[in-house]
Amino acid sequence: MRRLTTICLVACMSLAAMAQQATPLIGTWSGKLKVGAMSLTLVLHFEQEGADLKCTLDSPDQGAKGISVHKEFVSADSVSLSVPAIGAGYRARLADGKLTGTFSQMGMGFPLVMEKKEYKVLRPQTPRQPFPYETEEVTFANNTDNATLAGTLTYPVGYDKMRDVPVVIMVTGSGLQNRDEEIFSHKPFLVIADYLARHGIATLRYDDRSHGASTGGDRIKDKATTLDYKRDAQAGIAYLRGMRKFGMVGVLGHSEGGSIAFMLGGEKCVDFVISLAGLGVKADTALTAQYNRILELQGQKIQISTSQYRQIAHSARSEWMNWFVDYNPAPDIASTTCPVFAVNGGKDCQVISSLNLPAIEKTLPYNRETIIKEYPSLNHLLQNCDTGLPAEYNNIEETISAEVLTDMAEWINKLGNP
Question: What is the pLDDT of residue 83?
């Protein structure tokens, strides 16, 4: 019994020593990794769980959180970590309150200094409660695809005293997204809904099928194509019209959602269309231009052809991508006779403004209320930016340009007025 007690005491002393040894590392460490012209924020989280020191990695600028980290060696003054999911590692020494070392990936090493501090992002445009307007949590069904969509219906300030209130349904860009189209802690659809509510306009925004509070869908994730997401939006439009609470019903789509907006406009489902950074040319052409522009901005001289891009796209074996690269928006745009507000950022490197906006203007039937506009200093998210590269999105405090919000609200409120 005495020997067993001795072993237990030794074990407890060892655990206490390990916890004591790990103490300086426990917490959040943040640093900037410079890769050529790019700068990426990396965040390490060290947490003590009993005798075990757990570690995870975030890359906020790439929207990645909670990546598992393997501890190869940890002491009171040094660490050696590996991140198997991305084939990376980090070796550093702790001195003067900083981890100073080298981040390695794909055979290349980059200096990385991390300080013990919480990583915080500022999003000043994100609205905070209490709101001066009413919201309602709603669901509507796309019975064709067995999908139930959950969303938020936002009424404008003073709705109970207003007549013929316009309402806008919002459609997100590619990839499963929530009703706020949240990306890098930005919530552009929430910001838009709040602004429009304060300017007499109702909105409906919803979680994409099988995402967030939305459920079902015969085809989900990479198997669902733009046509499937179009039917979800159609169900939302039918729901709004069936409520008989609103006047004009319009659609606002961002990126891929902009293509869906023109599909709905071409099918005469809506009274007006808002396309934010939507396609004007065939998708394979637009995506090739995106690929080449990003390479150019990163200092690469390589340029690929559309046929080469198609090979890359098909190698992904995604039904969504296989459908999308063949999509030509021209017939939908040509069939859209209702008023259109089509805008893009001059520094957008995902949907190139100089390529897509002229094509929309050329193809779209004349309507005196239509506005087609480029904002020279804005990126794909319609933020004021420096380069337009996606790596900037997280570092920009602005969620969406105030000028775009003002122009959009004024345009909607003028529709139908002489």
Answer: 95
pLDDT exceeds 80 at position 5: no
pLDDT in tens, 211-251: 999 999 999 988 999 999 999 999 999 999 999 999 999 99
Q: Which residues are bridge partners to 93 per DSSP?
A: 78, 100
Distance CA 269, CA 238 (A): 9
**Amino acid at site 400:** I
Nearest partner of 176 among 143, 215, 141, judged by Cα: 215
**Alpha-helix runs per DSSP H in 23-134:** none
pTM of the predicted model over 0.70:
yes
Q: In whole angstroms, what is the distance from residue 114 CA to residue 273 CA?
A: 47
Q: Which tens digit of pLDDT belongs to each residue from 331-368?
A: 999 999 999 999 999 999 999 999 999 999 999 999 99
What SS3 class is residue 199?
A: coil
pLDDT of residue 343: 98
For residue 186, give the 3-state DSSP assignment: strand
Q: How confident is the model at residue 39 (pLDDT cuts 50, 70, 90)?
A: confident
The neighbouring-strand residues paired with 81 are 71, 90
What average pLDDT score do residues 10-23 get?
A: 43
What residues have CB less than 8 Å from 268, skipping those under 6 apart? 337, 338
- 80, 91 contact by CB (below 8 A): yes
Task: Tell which residue, 309, 233, 220, 311, has the closest CA to residue 267.
Answer: 233
Distance of CA 55 to the CA centre of its chain: 26
Residue written as tokens 């981040």? Answer: 103
Q: Is 150 helix (H, G, I), strand (E, B) or coil?
A: strand
User: Which region holds residue 389: left if phi is over 0, alpha if psi is between -120 and 50, else beta?
Assistant: beta
Distance CA 44, CA 24 (A): 13
